[in-house]
Amino acid sequence: MKKHILILAAAALFACGAASAQQKADPKGGISPEMLKEISKGYEGTASDKAIKNALNTTGINILAANSENIAMIDTHFSDMVKTKGITNQLSSGRCWLFSGLNVLRAKMIDKYNLGAFTFSQNYVFFYDQLEKANLFLQGVIDTKDKGFDDREVDWLFSNPIGDGGQFTGVANLVMKYGLVPSDVMPETFCANNTGQMRTQLATKLREDGLKLRDAKPKECQALKTEMLKEIYRMLVLCLGEPPAEFEYTMRDAKDEVISVKTYTPLSFYKEYVGEDLNNGYVMLMNDPSREYGKVYEIAYDRHVYDGQNWVYLNVPVETIKEIAIASIKDNTAMYFSCDVGKFSDRQKGTLDLRNFDYGSLFGTEFPMDKRQRIMTHASGSSHAMTLIAVDIKDGKPVKWMVENSWGPASGYKGNLIMTDEWFNEYMFRLVVENKYIPESMKAQLSQKPILLPAWDPMFLPEE
């Protein structure tokens, strides 16, 4: 009875406060002087308020919100781990999608041929990525010539003429079209590692070219586009180097013994040492609780190659993704993985853990949104791609996971990031797996006609 009375009293006080605030609110929707006076009561100036305010004047939020009850390093033992060697570094570029996809392929090659810390040339694939994206933009401008500049598609094209972000479909289409070369055949350059200035110049040139194409006669457009791409090609060669048409390469194993000495083209090298059908042999799975599960979705213009594939994925519950991921890891097969990497990330330890930071206690409030609500309100989305390589299973259930990152060996835990299973639930979004790990019950779902989503959907920004 007393509890019931207390609840009624609290409700009455809240109602009185709300009524008082309502009376002081500006009916036109602005902040009136009376309303500001009421709002300012949110800061009471208590001793704890002042202490936190003083601390925040000189210290970062993440430092003050660090949870002292969770400072110990997560156990680094994993029950199941894919064999791989070496850590890559994308430096100041948005090429995580490319590093992650190529790291999946190199893990297989390292294991198959007992190699050392081998890497494919990211710069080689990136060269053609930029050339193909330039063509994608220019052809998109030609295709939309009859639409006004205020059309959403036209506006999106000129807002996004080129970038260095992407996703796995780009890896598949580019590698199948242009092949691969070892990293020392076409090594990284300054512009490959620091893409910002090159991207700005390419985008400016493409926007200029786009205006010319919109003014050109339709029959002139293809020849004009070819001349424009010649100029883009020259800019790319100056920044990244010219891709080899043919090269001689000595392949050595982990004991530095020669496996072969041959002359290759990039395509013949790929076919001999990898040889997979990347376009048809992989499936992208998404966990997006804001959209219906069991449906296939396609993202317009979300491709790297004009004559390639848009990004297509099957939306499934996170538990389904876990089951498939575990099957792949147990079979020594790494996977392309993407997530909202900045959330609750302790970069020094290399852990992704919901308990790393206690923002609610710092600010004296709560942050109760679930994954669906965060997606709907743009509070969360996939921002970074890595390579999923390990899981720790206890009593039949995963307790933590590990990804190979592309931020260098000094970053995180020996170049990797370790995430708790709870973090995986909340901030993991995409996984690319081989067809053979997809259960038969899901294959019928994959045959559906995809639901087309617009390129400007905020959930599908390129991973960088």
How would you describe what is shown here?
This protein is of the alpha+beta class. Helix content is 42%, strand content 16%. The chain contains 17 helices and 14 strands. Strands 1, 4, 5, 6, 7, 8, 9, 10, 11, 12, 13 and 14 form a 12-stranded mixed beta sheet that branches. The chain has a two-stranded antiparallel ribbon with strand order 2-3. A hairpin with a 4-residue loop joins strand 8 and strand 9 (351-352). Helix 5 (96-113) crosses helix 8 (168-178), helix 6 packs parallel to helix 10 (196-215) and helix 6 (122-143) packs antiparallel against helix 11 (221-240). The chain starts with a helix and ends in an 11-residue tail after the last strand. The relative contact order is 0.15.
Keywords:
464 residues, alpha+beta, Cathepsin B, Chain A, twelve-stranded mixed beta sheet, two-stranded antiparallel sheet, 17 helices, 16% strand, globular
Q: CATH class, anyone?
A: Alpha Beta
Tally of DSSP helical segments: 17
Could you state the oligomeric state of the chains shown?
single chain
What is the mean pLDDT?
93
Number of E strands: 14
- The CATH homologous superfamily is called Cysteine proteinases
Q: Helix proportion of residues, in percent?
A: 40-55%
How many separate structural domains? 1
Blueprint of the fold:
Blueprint: H1 2-24, H2 33-39, H3 47-58, H4 61-65, E1 80-81, H5 96-113, H6 122-143, H7 152-159, H8 168-178, H9 190-193, H10 196-215, H11 221-240, E2 247-252, E3 258-264, H12 266-273, E4 282-286, E5 296-299, E6 311-315, H13 318-330, E7 335-339, E8 345-346, E9 351-352, H14 359-363, H15 371-376, E10 384-394, E11 397-404, E12 416-420, H16 421-427, E13 428-434, H17 440-446, E14 451-453
Parallel strand pairs: 4-6, 5-14, 9-12
Antiparallel strand pairs: 1-10, 2-3, 4-13, 5-6, 7-10, 7-13, 8-9, 10-11, 11-12
